[in-house]
Amino acid sequence: MKFPKLSYDKLIRRGIAITLCAATLALVFGKSFQSRALFDESKAINYQTFASRTTVENSVLFIGTYIIHKDALTDDLYEKAQDSAAESGQNNMYYKSELADGNWFFLDTVDNGIKGISSEGLPESIDTINPLYVTYYVGSDGVLRDAKTMAGLNPFDIPDPYNLANLPELDPIRTQYTMSEGATSISQEDFLSNRNSKDSGNLRSDVYYYQLLSTFFSLNLRDAATDKCDTQLANLNQSYIALKDAGEDEKAAIVYDLMSKVDATRRLLIMERLSEMDDNLLSKLNELSTGTYYTPYGNFKDSSEDKNKDNLPDYLVDLEDSTKGDMSSSFTSNPFVLQMFKQLGIVSNSSGWWTVLEEYEADKEKRAEEANEDNDDYVRDKSPSEYPFVQDAAIIEAIGTAMENCNNSYNTYRAKALVDSDDLLQHFIYDYSTQVIEQTVGTTVGGPIEFLQHVTNIKEDKISDQEGELTYLLNTLIPMASSRYTTSSNAQPGEAYVAATSEGAKKSALEDQKADQEADRAMLQFLIEAMRQRQTAETALEFVNERITITEGLLSALPDGEYRTYSASSVQAHIVWLKEEAQKIIDSDESLRSKLAELLARKNALQDKRDGCLDNNDLAGAKKYDALIAAVDQDIAREIAGGASGSQDNLADKLVDKALSKLADDANADLSGIADALAELGEDDKLDALADKAEASGAGADTLAGISDAKNKGDGSGVDSDALLAQLEALFGKSLDEMDEDELAVAGATCSRLSRSGITPADSLTQIIVGKLVDKNNRFTYSQYTENASTEYISMETLSNCTDFRYFYDDSKAIATMTKGSIVYIFKRGSDEMHKQDTSSDGEPLTEKVAYQGVVFLDEDDTQNYFNCEAEYCNKTKYAICLTAPKQAAVKDYTERLEEFFKEN
């Protein structure tokens, strides 16, 4: 997929990171495969010549031997460009700036942001750029072109997946074969010369190895499956170029992503044949390399020895037949008969790879006769010479390393390939993608490309076609997700539970089943949230309220059985989430806060329905409506707090009466919503009276605690947000607009802590300051990690921005590295360990596993331990602030002083 357009600061930081990242990762991890040096200068052109033939656009990056427009940079192109840097030795990254009349800048020396690539910066001499090699050019149109011919290319044909000699996974074997880092092939003569085969006495063994290796690297692993991928990729590439030309960038990005998946599929097939199948190519090469087809004289063995030959793919048979040859002429294969023929003067016309062995024997015999020319007693030994097999340990080891490399790549390509999934969104992406891939011909994109766009945007939390995505959510995704969740909620214990024989195993089975139900709930909630983001507030609220009613009905109708309590806890949690979602919608739209009459009418209607259930002795139905009424009570309380018209005293009295009525039915009733409403109305006397009456009526501890919490939330009600802002600015000695980014971050964290302590005026001020922090791209501010509400995290990128540590990550973002001088901390996504210096070192335990949500996150306890930073999750926002040690002290001081101010007022 296409990167978002890079900001100049990010572009510069990325450029500076390339060389350092490459050096650091090579030092820390080593390379997955051997370092490559296969750069072919004949396929490149120097920049001076290239620029004389082509108009090189501004805003392009020179990475390795690739020149790529910054708006056309993709993950795949970036990876290929980095590889070309390693192959060519052109490790510096340059930028041709549109802010400086097209001058080039070496990004490693740019240390003052956008100014550094403008007319104020120091440009690189064109004499530095001119000699550099260029192999590929990608302009703003996003089309990859051969730098020598400017012909359009398919970016996924680089490197050729079928040329085994160019696959980096096989470099260890290729290096043993060619005895060179650069060559991809070698003649038999040079192979034997490099190994000193004749003088070492290992000629026969080395000829055997040459046949195996030279044949191996020439094998064709294509078949109908890879041919299908090739055709699909060619069609998609034509469509991609047409879409780019037509300016349909979003569809082009979708097609490019499909190309990457098809390419991953065909490369997956190659890796599968190399190392994963039962009869895989590298295992066969390893077997043959131990000498299984070697003979000490005469012909080597071949596929005729394999009883399973007819069931093997052609490339395995070809490898087995690599040692097939007639080393004893066309007359006979018996070495004793061959000697007789020689004595009779019958000379073979043999020619082939085995000729070198016959010549060696002839030369050996000639030298023996010359040495014994004066020895009348000399009798030539007519038996064939025997040469035991000399196994090459280096080749065997190289094959083992290559197998591990191929296995790693197999897993990488499997993760990138298009595969179906139980995940609802991924299933639709798979289904639509398959149709688009199969129905695209030439420049015409086929299949449901619009639906694929919709589901992709929804999955990536991106709004593009708001109306189309909303319709798709309401008509397809949410009904499907709702059906899945209803089915999993109403399920009986599964087969694993039925088969379990112990209580522990049964419990484990039920917990696993609950995990599946929770996955369905998470998907449904994600889609409802996606709907809310695309729908008007009023309609979204209506939809969510309908979902609350539906879900409460689901809860009341759950079937009895061993799984019911597990299912109920999930459904109850979903109801809570829906109510919170409804409140988010209300808070987001002022017009929704003045609907008290509508809420009261709805409550009356629900009460009538509840009374009808009681008249019919339907206790379960009455309980359902009681829950709905309680939800409306919460909404009414919020409406009252928002300033709706009516008699406040009368409403407060009614709230107290309602609370007492609930206590009569249940001593442990939750009165926190009513108590919160009274507190926000400023009805402290009635709140105290409610507390006294509740205690006298024998209310439970939780009920009393809810009332007490509401009373405590009243602190600071005599001070409004304007007064708080004035006091805050007085502490800093300047206004918010005058504060620098460090001071504004401290101010935001201070207000957040006041807000979390129950000081209401700090709520709105926190949101105002956080808004300023986000608008200014404050380096201490980041989006909260939302997958674990019980723990606060800090993103690695933010830690790098706030400290002296530099943050690097691999292309899959699976491994994050923080470096500072000689200090290297390595964090693996999903791991609960940190490694120092390199991954082979003993891991240090982390408090929580390393998390990922677009970027890598680290738990606050661990960031405090390694980086002396803590997180402040800004109250009632989606953002957080990273606090270094000095800022922690400042926030603590300001918070204490402002809390004292509130106590005094």
Number of helices: 34
What's the β-strand tally? 19
How much β-strand is present in the residues? 5-15%
SSE class: alpha+beta
Radius of gyration, in angstroms, nearest whole number = 37 Å
Main β-sheet description: 6 strands, mixed
Arrangement of strands in the largest sheet: 5-4-2-3-7-8
Span of the ends, CA to CA = 56 Å
* Overall pLDDT: 83
Oligomerization category of the chains in this entry: single chain
| Helix proportion | 55-70%
Q: Based on CA inertia axes, which overall geometry fits?
A: elongated
Low-confidence stretches: 1-10, 12-37, 329-334, 344-350, 643-650
Q: Can you offer a commentary on this structure?
A:
This protein has 34 helices and 19 strands. It is an alpha+beta fold and 905 residues long. The longest helix is centred in the middle third of the chain and has 32 residues. The chain is elongated, with a radius of gyration of 37 Å.
Compact overview of the structure:
The chain has 905 residues and is α+β, with helices and mostly antiparallel strands.
Give me the secondary-structure topology:
Layout lengths: L7 H22 L15 E2 H7 L6 E4 L2 E4 L5 H14 L5 E3 L7 E3 L19 H4 L3 E2 L1 E3 L5 E3 L24 H8 L9 H7 L2 H4 L2 H16 L5 H22 L3 H28 L4 H9 L24 H7 L14 H9 L11 H17 L21 H24 L7 H16 L9 H11 L6 H24 L5 H5 L3 H32 L2 H20 L7 H25 L7 H20 L3 H23 L6 H18 L6 H10 L2 H13 L4 H12 L8 H12 L8 H16 L4 H15 L5 E3 L9 E3 H7 L3 E4 L5 E6 L2 E6 L4 E4 L7 E2 L5 E2 L3 E4 H8 L2 E4 L5 E5 L1 H20 L1
Parallel strand pairs: 3-7
Antiparallel strand pairs: 1-6, 2-3, 2-4, 4-5, 7-8, 9-19, 10-17, 11-12, 12-13, 13-14, 14-15, 16-17, 18-19
